[in-house]
Design a protein that fits this description.
Elements (H helix, E strand, L loop, with lengths): L1 E12 L5 H11 L5 E3 L8 E8 L6 H5 L3 E9 L1 E3 L8 E4 L7 H8 L4 E5 L8 E2 L2 E2 H6 L9 E14 L2 E8 L5 H11 L4 E11 L2 E2 L4 E2 H5 L3 H4 L4 E8 L1
Parallel strand pairs: 1-14, 3-12
Antiparallel strand pairs: 1-3, 1-15, 2-3, 4-11, 4-12, 5-6, 7-10, 8-9, 10-11, 12-13
Length: 235
């Protein structure tokens, strides 16, 4: 009889991994048939990825709807098709005319309820097809703007052309799009250069296990890292 774990595993996602990569790795390494997640993290981003095992996948919608918190970095003077530095550069512009005071004042305009146009390079679907797949094929489709809530967008440090920030946002907020829009308001261009999710709902980095740690443990030890787990015996 094999043991399959049902529960929540909080992973500190490494840069370069997609959320799908993390789920596929856990599914294969620990032989757990059903693995999902509650809230996509872009490949560039690191930090809290809430992974759902077994019956916990039924809680995906519930857990995905939670607020999230991030620390991140912005690079001024550049605009890309993905709105982060992993994308193809579309425009370059001057940033030398900007001051720290202007940056902080502009950031205050990006709090509250905002209407965001989702980026083409995203996991959202259009007629059943992921937008990023359409983007890879060179296609652009109309996307309706979405209402999101930015509870807090706080500038931590300004060392132009680099800016460090903290953000507390609702489900569905694209911080790379917020950064792109902020660049336009500043009269420059801007791209997200770093992003680390530190909280998703009630789960924080203190709850997380890294990919490297997962590579070193077996199924029996995994159970110690699973929250709300209920072992189920299967043939």
């Amino acid at each position: 009889m094999a043991q399959v774990t049902n529960g929540i595993l909080v992973v500190d996602k490494a840069e370069g991994w997609t959320s799908h990569d993390v789920c596929a790795f856990i599914r294969s390494r620990f032989r757990i048939p059903k693995v999902g997640h509650a809230g996509t993290l872009d490949p560039l981003a690191t930090g809290v990825l809430v992974v759902l095992l077994g019956q916990a996948t039924k809680r995906s919608q519930e857990l995905s709807s939670c607020d999230k918190e991030y620390f991140g970095s912005i690079q001024l003077g550049i605009q890309t098709d993905t709105h982060d530095i992993s994308g193809t550069v579309l425009n370059r512009g001057d940033w030398q005319h900007l001051t720290e005071a202007e940056v902080r004042a502009t950031a205050q305009k990006f709090t509250g309820v905002l209407q965001q146009l989702p980026p083409m390079v995203s996991a959202l679907k259009h007629n059943g097809v992921r937008l990023y797949r359409l983007a890879r094929a060179g296609k652009t489709v109309e996307r309706p703007k979405r209402s999101v809530t930015v509870h807090e967008f706080r500038i931590e440090e300004v060392h132009l052309p680099l800016i460090r920030f903290f953000a507390h946002v609702s489900k569905g907020t694209y911080l790379r799009t917020l950064v792109n829009d902020m660049g336009e308001v500043l009269g420059s261009f801007a791209a997200l250069s770093q992003l680390r999710r530190v909280r998703s709902g009630s789960f924080t980095l203190d709850d997380a296990i890294t990919i490297d740690q997962l590579k070193k443990i077996d199924r029996e030890k995994l159970i110690h890292f699973v929250k709300g787990q209920v072992p189920v015996s299967v043939d």
